[in-house]
Structure prediction request, 139 residues.
Amino acid sequence: MVLIVGGVTADVGGGGRPSGLPPESVEYDRLLIALGRVVQESAQLENVLRMAFCALVGSKYAAIVAAGQQVNWLIEQCRAVAREYREISDEHRNALLEVLGACRQANDERRRLVHHVWGHGPGGTRPSLVARIATTGFV
Prediction:
């Protein structure tokens, strides 16, 4: 599979590994392990955000509302509730909003790392982030 990004053509293979990297490539295996850790940690973040939403809302029905919601939804709803939550000091509210901003940044980075296309340089050099599939064309 060939990916064209900004006029640059990259062969990203079609069998799961960027072409040019041998099946026993330690470098690519390390990439997969790192991506797996990103996915695992993002699942933890999602769980913590779900619990934070439930704690902020303070209703026995909050878990029903939060169930199945995506991370962006959880972050935005926590931000909305936190901005109006008066049972904590302004200092704690600001700290919570700052943490939620960091969660948003981490989730954006996770999305970029997991959903963009990974390729390699000439001669099968180190894997690198090439581009996002949704914004590129395949030939």
User: Anything to note?
Assistant: The mean pLDDT is 78. The beta strands are 2-5, 8-11, 116-120, 127-132, 137-138. Residues 25-115 form one domain. Residues 15 and 102 are 35 Å apart (CA to CA).
